[in-house]
Design goal:
Blueprint (H helix, E strand, L loop, with lengths): L8 H11 L6 H22 L16
Length: 63
């Protein structure tokens, strides 16, 4: 589970960017890391909900 207090977005960006072929300068890495930190904080409550194998996703609306 993601712990937003222990997640290091700068380290994640530094490791992931080259792995997917992105060359980011230091300023852009900092902006991307800031965005990841925000996403982690926003997602934390949803990720904290315990799920079991019996839980089902919401149905997809098809008009």
């Amino acid at each position: 589970m993601l712990d937003p207090d222990r997640f290091d977005p700068a380290a994640h960006v530094a490791a992931a960017a080259p792995a997917v072929g992105l060359a980011l300068d230091a300023a852009r890495q900092a902006r991307v890391a800031a965005a990841f930190a925000l996403v982690a904080r926003i997602a934390a409550p949803a990720l904290a909900v315990p799920l079991t194998e019996a839980d089902e996703p919401a149905p997809v609306y098809r008009p």
